[in-house]
Specification:
The chain has three helices and six strands. By secondary structure, it is α+β, with helices and mostly antiparallel strands. It has one domain. The longest helix has 16 residues. The radius of gyration is 13 Å and the shape is globular.
């Protein structure tokens, strides 16, 4: 079992490995969602957060799930709203939506 702080670090490391070399990104902590099975972290580029200019942001950056039981990271899609993506994930994995 991991706690929220550890999950945040895991998500941050995951993002750093994928983006830091060409565009620094940051987790948008105020949008983090806690579920009974883990935490969903939303993120965007640091530049977008500074400028709020659309072209400075990421496209296709669905939320990251870090599971409480084992710290596993799953990058969820961006094919529809985050709410629908989360519902689809819960349905596929058999997780409760609580």
């Amino acid at each position: 079992m991991i706690d929220k702080e550890s999950a945040y670090r895991v998500a941050n490391e995951y993002l750093s490995e994928r983006y830091e070399s060409h565009m620094p990104v940051t987790i948008l902590s105020e949008y983090t969602i806690e579920k009974n099975y883990g935490w969903l972290f939303f993120y965007n580029t640091k530049k977008y957060l500074e400028t709020k200019i659309f072209r400075d942001g990421l496209a296709g950056n669905g939320p990251l799930l870090v599971e409480k039981s084992n710290g596993k990271v799953t990058a969820l899609g961006s094919y529809t709203s985050p709410e629908e993506i989360i519902k689809d994930f819960e349905r596929e994995r058999g997780f409760s939506s609580d």
